[in-house]
Amino acid sequence: MSDRAEAARRRMVRDCEALGRPVRIMEVCGTHTVAIFRSGIRASLPKGLTLLSGPGCPVCVTEQGYIDTVLELAQRDDVILATYGDMIRVPGTAGSLETVNRPGVRVVLSTDDALALARERPDKTVVFAAVGFETTTPATAVAVGQAAQEGLDNFCILSGHKRVVPAMAALLSDATNRIDAFLCPGHVSVIIGSEAYRPIAQRFGRSCVVAGFEPVLILEAMAAICRQLVEGRAEVESLYAAVVRPEGNPRAMELIDRYFEPCDGPWRGLGRIPEGSLRLRAEYERFDARRRFGLEERVAPEPAGCRCADVLCGRIEPVACGLFGSRCTPDTPVGPCMVSSEGACSAWYKYGRRGGRDGAG
How far apart are CA 122 and CA 137, in angstroms? Predict the structure, then answer.
């Protein structure tokens, strides 16, 4: 451990002892979850400080009904379903995109690839499964704008884009929440800016500290949270000022606002969140796959025995799920948290079982 990291750890120890009560910090970002495990940070935390993994993986929080709609579209002979690779193995009610094994399912690396498919195959409608937080939404917005400019009427999106701050508010609105503060995501914050978390600090009295992904930055962010708790403050701080500005990325936000508008939408584990999702604005509805194919919003139950919903809300650790490590593994996933490389269950399975204070043994 570097001198800076050790100094931050010592500050946390002193402040946790001064508080004299448990401290629970939720990391909102799946990349933070993985970085924390890989660096062994959990094993070095002060006694009484607990990390809660939150809804920081967009694949994991994508509701079961959306997955089933994607599978429905993939079965159509007139459709090419374009998706990022992390969606391929997510289980729906009747399998996954991997198991349906349809020739019209294509893994793309970018929205440009999806547009290229539409140009190459004018006989098919290319549907892009647009899943992600504000980080990936601008790229989808650009694709919609490009399709409109070129007149690519055989291109559309199934919007599964979601907004992080409303989800944080939804978590804190649950009277049973155990969250004292948030370790805020780095990637999303580059787009929305650190000031986007101001309503969380002011309305709910919870500290929000933005951090990068190096172990020392994560430890310093947690130390800053503990210092705020000792001093009775609930403020927004950014320790990632090199890339995160208070106002975020104005150009990216302008793109999101031009093509999308907030709407109420379902999240796995959190239910329907007011303004927690994004849909295309009326002037771009012709690129909305739901409208084009007359698709109703589906409501589907969670897989039997799967507790991804509780994991995403920080109610339980993955090892508390009865399926973890037995029926549900990265090779045989039951829920999305075991599929995604940023899913909490996947991280616990890969790293937590090696031991350490929070490991599975």
Answer: 25
What single DSSP character describes residue 247? T
Phi, psi of 214 (to 5 degrees): -70, 145
Q: For residue 127, give Cα distances in angstroms to 59, 72, 216, 319.
A: 17, 12, 41, 36
**pLDDT tens digits along 154-200:** 999 999 999 999 999 999 999 989 999 999 999 999 999 999 999 99
Give dist(CA 144, CA 152) in Å, integer: 9
Question: CA of 311: how far to CAs of 40, 52, 319, 337, in Å?
Answer: 20, 9, 10, 8
Which residue type occupies 174?
A: D
Q: Which fold has domain 3-57+164-238?
A: Rossmann fold (3.40.50)
The full length of the chain comes to: 361
Overall pTM surpassing 0.85 (yes/no): yes
CATH T-level assignment (fold) for domain 59-163+248-293: Rossmann fold (3.40.50)
Distance, in Å, from the CA atom of 217 to the CA atom of 347, rounded to the nearest integer, reads 20
What would the mean pLDDT of 19-39 be, rounded to a whole number? 94
- For CATH 3.40.50.11750, the residue range(s) in the chain are 3-57+164-238
| Cα 150 to Cα 127: distance, rounded to the nearest angstrom | 16
Label residue 244 left, alpha or beta by phi (over 0 means left) and psi (-120 to 50 means alpha): beta
Q: Which of 181, 230, 169 is nearest to 210 (CA)?
A: 181
User: What is the tens place of the pLDDT at every residue in 40-74?
Assistant: 998 889 999 999 999 999 999 999 999 999 999 99
CATH code 3.40.50.11740 region(s) in the chain: 59-163+248-293
CA dist list (Å): 91 to 60, 200, 316: 11, 33, 21
